[in-house]
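[Automated response] Your request has been received and processed.

Submitted sequence:
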Amino acid sequence: MTREAAALGIPSYSIFKGPIGAVDQRLFDEGRIVHVGSTDAVDTIRLVTAPRPAELPPARRDLLEILIEGIELSARA
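Generated structure:
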């Protein structure tokens, strides 16, 4: 979910210890994900509280169909 958060502009942090893939490395280089590689780096984490909506939006029953249609269209391209 770290990549997804970074794509949405949400500050994101990774504690992953394995080999870093190209996508993650680029997100690190762009400052969109901060790699927390030691206990000292924990101090770099910025806590942000997002406001919660007073009421959730109504459920979209057609959302799954919209997503599947989008995936099928991009697969054909």
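Summary generated for your ticket: Residues 1-48 form one domain. The chain has a mean pLDDT of 84.
If you did not submit this request, please reply to this message.
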